[in-house]
Amino acid sequence: MAPMAALLLVAACGLTAAGGAILLLRAAQRRAALQHAFLAEGVALLEGGRIAPTPSGYGVLRGRWRSHEAALTPIAEALAFRRLPQLWIVVTLKADAGLDAAFEALRRPTGAEFFAAGGGLPRAFAPPPDWPQDTALRGEPEAESALPRIAEALAPTLAEPRCKALLAGPSGVRLVWQAAQGRRGAYLLFRDLRFDMERLPAGEIEALLDRALGVAGAIRAASAGGDHAQAA
């Protein structure tokens, strides 16, 4: 091959590589922007609503919901064996649930739930009879006496297929909810965590916040009812 032709070939290869690198960079930037804005539809819903960055790339939505401090955190997880990646939304609401001790109910545990908070709680309990029996239940010792009073009030939420975990205690409530499931092809071929949903709709964000607030209210009402019955 003539020297000039060789130089032209090298230059063309270099331009092709540079063009490919630029396309990959732009794709990565677009993906990062989409992840950061995944909960952007909720900014206008919350008083003082704002999106804060996280190392994962997903933005955390913070603000106040019906006078209570609230935060929604997306978590992408692909650690469970033989299951597609999951995109969870962790909803934390500082609302008085009338509890003196904390507990967490974890549905369908696989051992890969790094986002669950119950691992730090000291005691395991059997789930109440009207709860799904694939629920792992842990809590502080004082929480055990409260469970019979509030079990019925929490049963509908725990029976929801998209509910992964429910934690309640003196500081409020925390729900872990399925937002989306990963694309099969992207994950099986490239182990890539891609989800079809680019933004969580405002209506779903509002529903999650109201559900967390409703859980706190249901626990508080059930606890108060039990206390009144004991006093009578």
UniProtKB/TrEMBL annotation:
Organism: Methylopila jiangsuensis
Highest classification ranks of the organism: Bacteria, Pseudomonadati, Pseudomonadota, Alphaproteobacteria, Hyphomicrobiales
Origin: domain of life: Bacteria
UniProt-recorded name of the protein: Uncharacterized protein
